[in-house]
Amino acid sequence: MGKNNTVSILGCGWYGFALAQYLQKAGFQVKGSCTSSLKFFDLETAGIKPYRVVFDSAEQSYSPDFFQCDVLIVAIPPKRRSGEAHEYFDKILGIKNTIIAHGPKQVIFISSTSVYSDNNTSVDEDTVPVPDTESGKVILEAERLLQDQSDFKVTILRFGGLIGPGRDPGRFFAGKKEVPNGLAPVNLIHLNDCLKITYAILQKEAFAYTFNAVSSAHPSRADFYTQAAKLGGYEVPEFIRELNNWKIVKSKYLRSVLDYEQDTCFNLGNVL
């Protein structure tokens, strides 16, 4: 994909704002959406064209120019509070209809590996997802809603648990006692890999795919978070050495389709 292509990022939060900066430095023309005046200023300062875009039950507000792009990246996770499921579905439906109306033909939807249940086995992109959490069910519905049309190609990018700057894993369980399921494997990914995988999708024009984006390393919760706490200078947590419900999420197509090799993995010296 040429460097003059325009990418619009709907949702410039922790990942979206970092991606906007990354792509802007790589030579893309980047438009970024936000809902607050402070983030508007941050985007403008970083050389990213800012837009106020709102899709919710009380308001639907956007500039058609934001959706006039070569690729739209939708990076809006559902809120954690209960009762968000219906609101999130309506939000994604509004976004879908707007995409169809204004014409971007290539979309990346940022999803989550929570669409897979903890069913005590390994899963990959060919595994039929059967979510066992409310958030997983909501996100899977959003995936299918965006895929159920013929106006644009959508790639689903399912991230594992996100770690990186501002998300120090050493803090997650610091000082906690009797943390359950200590032997369960972790399914995490560093921000560096998130950005590079998204860039690889753009470069390869890999649309109409589903990718799991998870580190190939799956240490136990106890081992990983204990080491992270030590390196971060936090009080070491105490885990119950038990194995209850778990899953190992594998990325089957990162290498074969994107020719991507993860380089961050779990060298905690790089992660923290």
Describe, in plain words, how this protein is organized in 3D.
α1 links the parallel β1 (6-10) and β2. The protein has helices at residues 14-25, 37-45, 84-102, 134-147, 191-204, 221-232, 253-258, 268-271; strands at 6-10, 29-34, 49-52, 54-55, 60-61, 71-74, 106-112, 121-123, 153-159, 161-163, 188-190, 210-213, 247-249. Helix content is 33%, strand content 19%. It has a domain at 77-168 and 187-218 and 248-264: NAD(P)-binding Rossmann-like Domain (Rossmann fold). It is built from 8 helices and 13 strands. α3 runs parallel beside α4 (134-147). The two termini are 32 Å apart. With 272 residues, the protein is α/β, with parallel strands linked by helices. Strands 3-2-1-6-7-9-12 form a 7-stranded parallel β-sheet, with helices on both faces. A two-stranded antiparallel ribbon has the order 4-5.
Tell me what the CATH architecture of the domain at 77-168 and 187-218 and 248-264 is. Answer: 3-Layer(aba) Sandwich
DSSP strand count: 13
What fraction strand?
A: 15-25%
Please identify which CATH superfamily of the domain at 77-168 and 187-218 and 248-264 we are dealing with: NAD(P)-binding Rossmann-like Domain
Keywords, separated by commas or semicolons:
single chain, 272 residues, alpha/beta, Rossmann fold, 7-stranded parallel sheet, two-stranded antiparallel ribbon, 33% helix, disordered C terminus
